[in-house]
Design a protein that fits this description.
Blueprint: E1 2-10, H1 22-35, E2 38-47, H2 57-67, E3 73-76, H3 79-82, H4 86-98, E4 102-105, E5 110-111, H5 115-148, E6 160-162, E7 169-171, H6 173-187, H7 192-202, H8 210-220
């Protein structure tokens, strides 16, 4: 019987999401292993951890077991429990394949011990990444529209103040003058640090940081 390890993860924001809880993932993995003659030796969990990074204790534990060839299969409830980034997901699974360790994802019905499973994995991971990219694009476009309409989009930017309605932005005369001066100096080829020095000369002692100037110019572009 092949020794298997399950991996489960939930971010803080997903703690109460139906179907994603750690207990639910754990139960489904155990049931799957029972039905498929897999010896479930351990279930590794990362509770309250985001899938945007592989910097997780559970992933480190999993990879150490892979390196020592202690298991023959890795089971997850859903592909994005491993990672929300396609490149990270495929890199991890490539590591498993090099160690001759199968990867199973219950939700997507993926089993990399088969050629079809490996093919479907690549398709599924790519589609998941595309969906997230589309969501990011729509979010970015919506924020840009708000900015173009002088509406609040997160933190009130330099050069603006929040109107009484709590949504619209109104120009701050003094800071708008700083923005115009920064753009003029930047057009002359001055570095961000040099622009800071020039602005400090006319800004009545106010200090500026190069990154602040960079952000101001980026938004004003």
């Amino acid at each position: 019987m092949v020794k298997a390890v399950g991996y489960i993860r939930v971010s803080t924001s997903e703690q109460a999401t139906e179907g994603i809880s750690l207990d639910n993932q754990r139960a489904k993995i155990a049931a799957y292993c029972g039905l498929n003659d897999l010896d479930l030796v351990e279930i590794i969990e990362d509770a309250g951890k985001s899938g945007k990074s592989l910097n997780r204790d559970g992933i480190d534990r999993l990879l150490s077991m892979v390196k020592r060839r202690e298991i023959g299969a890795v089971i997850v409830y859903k592909l994005d429990r491993l990672s929300r980034k396609v490149i990270d997901t495929l890199t991890l699974i490539e590591t498993l394949e090099k160690a001759d360790i199968a990867f199973h994802s219950l939700n997507e019905k993926i089993d990399t011990s088969t050629a079809m499973g490996r093919f479907f994995l690549n398709i599924t991971a790519s589609l998941a990444q595309m969906e997230r990219d589309l969501i990011s694009e729509r979010t970015r476009d919506a924020l840009q529209m708000k900015i173009a309409n002088h509406e609040r989009a997160g933190q009130v930017p330099f050069g603006w103040r929040l109107a009484e309605d709590g949504n619209a932005l109104i120009e701050h005369e003094g800071e708008q003058a700083v923005i115009k001066a920064a753009r003029r100096l930047h057009s002359k080829g001055l570095s961000y640090r040099a622009i800071c020095r020039e602005l400090e000369k006319i800004g009545q002692g106010r200090k500026y940081h190069p990154q602040t100037i960079k952000n101001i110019l980026k938004r004003a572009a």
